[in-house]
Amino acid sequence: MVDEARTDFPLHDSAASIADGCLGVVGNLLVRPRRDCPRVLVLFNGAINEHKILPMNFQRWTWAEDFDATIVSASDTLVSPETGLSLGWYHGGAQDFATTTLRPIADALDALGLGDAQRICFGSSAGGFAAVMASILGWSDLSIAINPQTDITRYHDAGRLPFLAQIGVDPEAVSPEAAKRLSLCAALEGNTAGGKVVIFQNRFDNHHFTRHFLPLVDAVADLPEARRRDFSLRLTADREAGHSPPNRAATLAMIREAAPELLA
Questions:
Q1: How far is CA 16 from the centre of its chain?
Q2: Tell me, which fold does domain 15-262 have in CATH?
Q3: How far is residue 140 from each of residues 84, 131, 167, measured CA to CA in Å?
Q4: Which pLDDT tens digit goes with each residue over 156-205?
Protein backbone atom coordinates (compact mmCIF):
# COMPACT_ATOMS: atom_id res chain seq x y z
CA MET A 1 0.00 0.00 0.00
CA VAL A 2 2.70 2.51 0.92
CA ASP A 3 5.11 3.68 -1.75
CA GLU A 4 6.82 6.55 0.02
CA ALA A 5 10.41 5.21 -0.01
CA ARG A 6 11.60 6.83 -3.24
CA THR A 7 13.64 10.01 -3.60
CA ASP A 8 14.60 10.19 -7.28
CA PHE A 9 11.54 11.87 -8.77
CA PRO A 10 12.47 14.70 -11.17
CA LEU A 11 12.31 18.13 -9.51
CA HIS A 12 10.56 21.03 -11.23
CA ASP A 13 10.23 24.73 -10.49
CA SER A 14 6.67 24.69 -11.83
CA ALA A 15 4.09 22.02 -12.59
CA ALA A 16 3.85 23.58 -16.06
CA SER A 17 7.10 21.84 -17.06
CA ILE A 18 5.87 18.33 -16.15
CA ALA A 19 4.79 16.44 -19.26
CA ASP A 20 1.46 14.64 -19.37
CA GLY A 21 1.76 11.11 -18.04
CA CYS A 22 5.07 11.81 -16.27
CA LEU A 23 5.81 12.16 -12.56
CA GLY A 24 7.49 15.25 -11.18
CA VAL A 25 7.92 16.99 -7.84
CA VAL A 26 7.00 20.63 -7.26
CA GLY A 27 7.52 21.82 -3.68
CA ASN A 28 5.95 19.15 -1.47
CA LEU A 29 3.79 17.74 -4.27
CA LEU A 30 4.25 14.78 -6.60
CA VAL A 31 2.29 15.50 -9.78
CA ARG A 32 1.24 13.31 -12.73
CA PRO A 33 -0.58 15.63 -15.15
CA ARG A 34 -3.44 14.75 -17.49
CA ARG A 35 -4.23 18.11 -19.05
CA ASP A 36 -6.94 16.62 -21.29
CA CYS A 37 -8.97 15.42 -18.29
CA PRO A 38 -11.29 17.70 -16.27
CA ARG A 39 -10.60 15.90 -12.98
CA VAL A 40 -7.88 16.05 -10.34
CA LEU A 41 -7.35 13.43 -7.65
CA VAL A 42 -5.40 14.56 -4.59
CA LEU A 43 -3.88 11.77 -2.47
CA PHE A 44 -3.15 12.41 1.20
CA ASN A 45 -0.84 10.17 3.25
CA GLY A 46 -1.66 8.12 6.28
CA ALA A 47 1.06 7.28 8.81
CA ILE A 48 4.58 6.91 7.44
CA ASN A 49 6.68 3.99 8.68
CA GLU A 50 8.84 5.54 11.40
CA HIS A 51 11.93 3.81 9.98
CA LYS A 52 11.31 5.15 6.46
CA ILE A 53 10.54 8.84 7.04
CA LEU A 54 12.05 10.94 4.26
CA PRO A 55 12.18 14.72 3.72
CA MET A 56 9.20 14.15 1.38
CA ASN A 57 6.89 11.14 1.55
CA PHE A 58 4.39 10.03 -1.08
CA GLN A 59 2.00 7.12 -0.65
CA ARG A 60 0.11 5.30 -3.41
CA TRP A 61 2.03 7.11 -6.15
CA THR A 62 2.22 3.86 -8.14
CA TRP A 63 -1.58 3.91 -8.32
CA ALA A 64 -1.57 6.85 -10.75
CA GLU A 65 -2.02 4.44 -13.66
CA ASP A 66 -5.39 3.37 -12.25
CA PHE A 67 -6.98 6.80 -12.51
CA ASP A 68 -8.39 8.88 -15.33
CA ALA A 69 -7.33 12.16 -13.74
CA THR A 70 -4.41 14.39 -12.97
CA ILE A 71 -2.83 12.98 -9.81
CA VAL A 72 -1.37 15.09 -7.01
CA SER A 73 0.20 13.29 -4.06
CA ALA A 74 0.87 15.66 -1.17
CA SER A 75 3.71 15.20 1.31
CA ASP A 76 2.85 16.41 4.82
CA THR A 77 5.16 19.30 5.71
CA LEU A 78 5.15 18.27 9.39
CA VAL A 79 6.36 14.72 8.69
CA SER A 80 10.12 14.69 8.22
CA PRO A 81 13.35 13.38 9.76
CA GLU A 82 13.69 16.74 11.54
CA THR A 83 10.39 16.49 13.43
CA GLY A 84 10.49 12.71 13.77
CA LEU A 85 6.71 12.67 13.33
CA SER A 86 5.14 9.86 11.34
CA LEU A 87 1.74 11.59 11.51
CA GLY A 88 0.98 15.26 10.99
CA TRP A 89 -2.60 15.29 9.69
CA TYR A 90 -1.52 18.07 7.28
CA HIS A 91 -2.12 20.50 10.14
CA GLY A 92 0.53 22.93 8.94
CA GLY A 93 1.87 23.96 12.35
CA ALA A 94 2.28 27.71 12.73
CA GLN A 95 0.62 28.19 9.34
CA ASP A 96 -2.38 26.05 8.41
CA PHE A 97 -3.63 23.31 6.11
CA ALA A 98 -4.87 25.76 3.50
CA THR A 99 -1.56 27.63 3.37
CA THR A 100 0.89 24.73 3.52
CA THR A 101 -1.00 22.20 1.38
CA LEU A 102 -4.13 23.42 -0.41
CA ARG A 103 -2.70 26.67 -1.78
CA PRO A 104 0.36 24.97 -3.34
CA ILE A 105 -1.93 22.37 -4.93
CA ALA A 106 -4.14 25.12 -6.35
CA ASP A 107 -1.04 26.91 -7.69
CA ALA A 108 0.13 23.70 -9.37
CA LEU A 109 -3.28 23.19 -10.95
CA ASP A 110 -3.31 26.77 -12.22
CA ALA A 111 0.12 26.18 -13.78
CA LEU A 112 -1.28 23.12 -15.56
CA GLY A 113 -4.30 25.05 -16.83
CA LEU A 114 -6.54 23.00 -14.54
CA GLY A 115 -7.69 25.68 -12.14
CA ASP A 116 -11.34 24.91 -12.93
CA ALA A 117 -11.01 21.11 -12.87
CA GLN A 118 -13.12 19.00 -10.53
CA ARG A 119 -11.18 18.40 -7.31
CA ILE A 120 -11.48 15.02 -5.61
CA CYS A 121 -9.48 14.21 -2.47
CA PHE A 122 -8.73 10.77 -1.05
CA GLY A 123 -7.03 9.42 2.05
CA SER A 124 -7.24 6.78 4.72
CA SER A 125 -6.66 7.29 8.45
CA ALA A 126 -4.79 10.63 8.85
CA GLY A 127 -5.04 11.17 5.11
CA GLY A 128 -8.78 10.75 5.42
CA PHE A 129 -8.84 13.52 8.02
CA ALA A 130 -7.12 15.86 5.56
CA ALA A 131 -9.37 14.85 2.68
CA VAL A 132 -12.56 15.50 4.64
CA MET A 133 -11.21 18.80 5.98
CA ALA A 134 -10.63 19.92 2.37
CA SER A 135 -14.34 19.43 1.67
CA ILE A 136 -15.41 21.12 4.90
CA LEU A 137 -13.33 24.14 3.87
CA GLY A 138 -15.02 24.11 0.46
CA TRP A 139 -11.76 23.45 -1.42
CA SER A 140 -12.59 19.93 -2.57
CA ASP A 141 -15.67 19.10 -4.63
CA LEU A 142 -15.68 15.53 -3.29
CA SER A 143 -13.63 13.81 -0.60
CA ILE A 144 -13.38 10.06 -0.05
CA ALA A 145 -12.00 8.73 3.23
CA ILE A 146 -11.44 5.28 4.71
CA ASN A 147 -11.38 4.84 8.51
CA PRO A 148 -10.36 8.46 9.11
CA GLN A 149 -9.50 10.08 12.38
CA THR A 150 -12.08 12.82 12.88
CA ASP A 151 -10.68 14.35 16.08
CA ILE A 152 -6.93 14.30 16.63
CA THR A 153 -7.39 14.97 20.33
CA ARG A 154 -9.12 11.57 20.59
CA TYR A 155 -6.30 9.67 18.90
CA HIS A 156 -3.88 7.26 20.58
CA ASP A 157 -1.31 8.96 22.83
CA ALA A 158 1.67 7.59 20.87
CA GLY A 159 0.69 9.58 17.78
CA ARG A 160 -1.24 12.43 19.36
CA LEU A 161 1.10 13.67 22.09
CA PRO A 162 4.31 14.13 20.02
CA PHE A 163 2.25 15.88 17.36
CA LEU A 164 0.59 18.27 19.82
CA ALA A 165 3.98 19.01 21.39
CA GLN A 166 5.39 19.81 17.95
CA ILE A 167 2.62 22.33 17.18
CA GLY A 168 2.63 23.80 20.71
CA VAL A 169 -0.84 22.72 21.84
CA ASP A 170 -1.43 21.66 25.45
CA PRO A 171 -3.46 18.42 25.25
CA GLU A 172 -5.24 19.42 28.47
CA ALA A 173 -6.17 22.91 27.27
CA VAL A 174 -7.19 22.91 23.61
CA SER A 175 -8.68 26.27 22.68
CA PRO A 176 -11.83 26.50 20.52
CA GLU A 177 -9.72 28.03 17.75
CA ALA A 178 -7.23 25.15 17.89
CA ALA A 179 -10.06 22.62 18.02
CA LYS A 180 -11.37 23.75 14.63
CA ARG A 181 -8.04 22.66 13.12
CA LEU A 182 -7.80 19.45 15.15
CA SER A 183 -11.36 18.15 14.87
CA LEU A 184 -13.62 17.66 11.87
CA CYS A 185 -16.57 17.78 14.25
CA ALA A 186 -15.52 21.21 15.56
CA ALA A 187 -14.83 22.41 12.01
CA LEU A 188 -18.37 21.41 11.02
CA GLU A 189 -20.00 23.65 13.62
CA GLY A 190 -21.87 26.30 11.66
CA ASN A 191 -20.77 24.80 8.33
CA THR A 192 -23.47 25.41 5.73
CA ALA A 193 -21.63 24.86 2.44
CA GLY A 194 -18.71 22.85 1.12
CA GLY A 195 -17.80 19.78 -0.85
CA LYS A 196 -19.37 16.35 -0.73
CA VAL A 197 -17.95 13.67 1.58
CA VAL A 198 -18.03 9.87 1.37
CA ILE A 199 -16.61 7.97 4.34
CA PHE A 200 -16.12 4.21 4.55
CA GLN A 201 -15.72 3.08 8.18
CA ASN A 202 -14.93 -0.49 9.19
CA ARG A 203 -17.24 -1.48 12.05
CA PHE A 204 -14.48 -3.74 13.40
CA ASP A 205 -11.99 -0.87 13.69
CA ASN A 206 -13.24 -0.37 17.23
CA HIS A 207 -11.23 2.72 18.19
CA HIS A 208 -12.12 4.65 15.06
CA PHE A 209 -15.71 3.50 14.99
CA THR A 210 -16.46 4.59 18.57
CA ARG A 211 -14.06 7.52 19.08
CA HIS A 212 -14.10 9.06 15.61
CA PHE A 213 -16.91 7.85 13.35
CA LEU A 214 -19.84 8.03 15.78
CA PRO A 215 -19.01 11.59 16.95
CA LEU A 216 -18.86 12.64 13.29
CA VAL A 217 -22.26 11.02 12.69
CA ASP A 218 -23.63 13.21 15.49
CA ALA A 219 -21.92 16.32 14.10
CA VAL A 220 -23.36 15.71 10.64
CA ALA A 221 -26.82 15.15 12.14
CA ASP A 222 -26.66 18.67 13.58
CA LEU A 223 -26.03 20.27 10.18
CA PRO A 224 -28.76 22.01 8.18
CA GLU A 225 -30.59 19.49 6.01
CA ALA A 226 -29.16 20.78 2.73
CA ARG A 227 -25.58 20.44 4.01
CA ARG A 228 -26.31 17.11 5.67
CA ARG A 229 -27.18 15.65 2.26
CA ASP A 230 -23.58 16.22 1.16
CA PHE A 231 -22.37 13.50 3.56
CA SER A 232 -22.54 9.76 2.87
CA LEU A 233 -21.32 7.77 5.90
CA ARG A 234 -21.01 4.09 5.05
CA LEU A 235 -20.17 1.13 7.28
CA THR A 236 -18.07 -1.82 6.17
CA ALA A 237 -17.42 -5.01 8.13
CA ASP A 238 -13.96 -6.60 7.93
CA ARG A 239 -13.14 -8.27 11.23
CA GLU A 240 -9.60 -9.22 10.20
CA ALA A 241 -8.55 -5.85 8.77
CA GLY A 242 -9.47 -3.66 11.74
CA HIS A 243 -7.91 -0.26 11.04
CA SER A 244 -5.61 -1.50 8.29
CA PRO A 245 -6.61 0.01 4.95
CA PRO A 246 -8.05 -2.38 2.37
CA ASN A 247 -5.74 -3.74 -0.29
CA ARG A 248 -5.36 -1.93 -3.59
CA ALA A 249 -8.21 -3.74 -5.35
CA ALA A 250 -10.64 -3.23 -2.46
CA THR A 251 -9.66 0.42 -2.06
CA LEU A 252 -10.15 1.06 -5.77
CA ALA A 253 -13.57 -0.60 -5.53
CA MET A 254 -14.55 1.87 -2.79
CA ILE A 255 -13.28 4.79 -4.85
CA ARG A 256 -15.23 3.49 -7.85
CA GLU A 257 -18.36 3.31 -5.71
CA ALA A 258 -17.94 6.94 -4.66
CA ALA A 259 -16.59 8.39 -7.92
CA PRO A 260 -16.83 5.96 -10.87
CA GLU A 261 -15.56 8.60 -13.27
CA LEU A 262 -12.11 8.46 -11.61
CA LEU A 263 -11.19 4.96 -12.70
CA ALA A 264 -9.31 4.55 -15.95
A1: 24
A2: Rossmann fold (3.40.50)
A3: 29, 8, 25
A4: 999 999 999 999 999 999 999 999 999 999 999 999 999 999 999 999 99
